[in-house]
Amino acid sequence: MALKVLSALDTAKTQYYHFKAIIVAGMGLFTDAYDLFCISPIMRLIGRIYYKDHKYEVAVALLGTAIGQIVFGYLGDRVGRRRVYGISLTLMVLSSLGCGFSICTSRGCVLGSLGFFRFLLGLGIGGDYPLSATIMSEFANKATRGAFIAAVFSMQGFGILASSVVTMAICGALDGVSKARPEDETPIAADIAWRVLLMLGAVPAAATFYWRMMMPETARYTALVEHNVLRAAMDMEKVLDVSLRQIEEEHPLPPATPPPTYPLLSGEFFHRHGRDLLSCASTWFLLDVVFYSSNLFQSHIYSHFIPDKSHVNAFKDAFDIAKLQAVVAACSTIPGYWATVYFIDRVGRVKIQIMGFLFMAAGFFAMGAPYYNHWDRHTDYGFMVLYGLTFFFANFGPNTTTFIVPAELFPARFRTTCNGLSGASGKLGALVGSVGFLWASHRKKENDFPKAIGMTASLMILGGICIVGAAITYLFTTETTARSLEENEKDDGFERDPLEAVALQEP
After folding, report:
1. Which of 11, 284, 393, 467 has its CA 20 to 30 A from that of 350?
2. How far apart are CA 447 and CA 461, in angstroms?
3. What is the SS3 assignment for 294?
4. How far apart are CA 249 and CA 245, in angstroms?
5. What CATH class has 2-249+264-505?
6. Distance between CA 88 and CA 32 in Å, rounded?
7. CB neighbours of 20 closer than 8 A, spacing ≥ 6?
8. Which residues of 248-286 are buried (b: 16+ CB within 10 A; e: fewer)?
9. Cis bond upstream, residue 398 (ω within 30)
């Protein structure tokens, strides 16, 4: 009966519940993006209130995300996807509210309180990554699985756009009632604005809490991990357009080989899945080093397209940052996500990931090589176009596929754990890109170590990282398109060539 349940999942026609699952799971990614990307204009507001012209970066949410991916990924395999899903969502809601409810008004206290709640928020966000990807992969049919998981991830683009629009709305409204103040003064209302912005991040997550709790456990987890095939069939009957009779076997046969019992991260695990885990973790790490180094571009774009912040008040400053983010999200980020949704099951994961890395590399080289001879001296839109294209191919490429592939490659009892380990590797790359790499590239004193490596060298290095990512993808990443999750597991007691596995499944 278990085989028939899994077969029914793989061949189920696309129906209402699939789209409902995309919205429910995707709203977590929407909230993730809102909370992570609203921080740039918020930091402008906080900087104006407490730090004047001092520039600083906040990476504590990324650290929390990395830890959350590992912890909640592990729990997702031990406790169940559905239960842990609710815990991560609750943590996101409460920590978003906590960020805004800080009663601190002194410089050190504000950053300490905000850092604490941003860390908790990162834990919840981290948990949402492996659970959302895995839940969608285990509900989807194999023909459109990639598009469904990509659609869940694409909600990030709308979250980025929403954070920008909400920031512009709040800053525009408050600036409108503060026009009597001098232009270079920071309005008192700015201290309220950043708190409201952070608290609003709880709204989309809270709005889907009921529907997330009403989702049944995935049939694959129930059948393959809990070994309760009847419950899996009954849960499928509730949400999908299949009847119990369609998935019931009169004389179920015992499995040809006993279920494997090797533990996580054992020698047997690495023999079967070590290459896949290395590929997923390393490509996600390299992608996030590049993706989170975007401040390298933003510093150039801000200096050319946004007025000097010393001549505008805090609301204008944050408004301009949010407007730029909205333009990039609408013209580059969201189209990139949906290009992946359309092509992922037609072209394949590996080809899209390689293509994305290579086009990103081309964009970095085009920005880096002539930077000091051209881009640094001219205020034009060429750099902005290259910046947008680079982010388009990041999302129509490895930023989406690195989220999809780990949810398809590993056995059900290790799936969220391995997805979490891969994602945590990515967040370590994000810390390298957003903190370490930027710090090294902006050193100014000659006796500083390391010395400034400059914009040209920085962009060329990022291009080189993309080339390495493409090479690792080509050499080590397994294609999962049009294959059932069980075909990818390599858990049937012996190794099998992927093409042979597919052929054996054909009638």
Report:
1. 11
2. 23
3. coil
4. 8
5. mainly alpha
6. 11
7. 211
8. eeeeeeeeeeeeeeeeeeeeebeebbebbbbbbbbbbbb
9. no
The alpha-helical segments, DSSP class H, found in 179-258 are 190-199, 202-207, 209-214, 219-220, 229-239
Structure token pair of residue 375:
């881009």
Q: Amino acid letter at 82?
A: R
DSSP state of 245: G
pLDDT for 265-306, tens place per residue? 899 999 999 999 999 999 999 999 999 887 556 655 666 666
Between 2-6, 113-117, 266-270, 355-359, the lowest mean confidence (pLDDT) is in 2-6
Burial category of 468 from C-beta neighbours within 10 Å (exposed 0-12, middle 13-18, buried 19 and up) = middle
Q: How many CB atoms lie under 10 A from the CB of residue 182?
A: 8
Task: Indicate whether 496 pLDDT > 90.
Answer: no
Q: How far apart are CA 241 and CA 179, in angstroms?
A: 58
The angle formed by the CA atoms of residues 335, 64 and 437, to the nearest 5 degrees, is 65
> Rounded to an integer, what distance in angstroms lies between the CA atom of residue 483 and that of residue 496?
14
| All residues at 6 or more sequence positions from 22 whose CB lies less than 8 Å from its CB, including other chains | 136, 148, 151, 152
Rg of the chain over all Cα atoms, to the nearest angstrom:
24
Residue 470: CB atoms within 10 A of its CB come to 23
With tokens 């659970």, the residue in question is: 131
When the pLDDT of each residue in the chain is averaged and rounded to a whole number, the result is 81
Q: Is 379 left (phi over 0), alpha (psi -120 to 50) or beta?
A: beta
What pLDDT band is residue 491 in, cutting at 50, 70 and 90? low
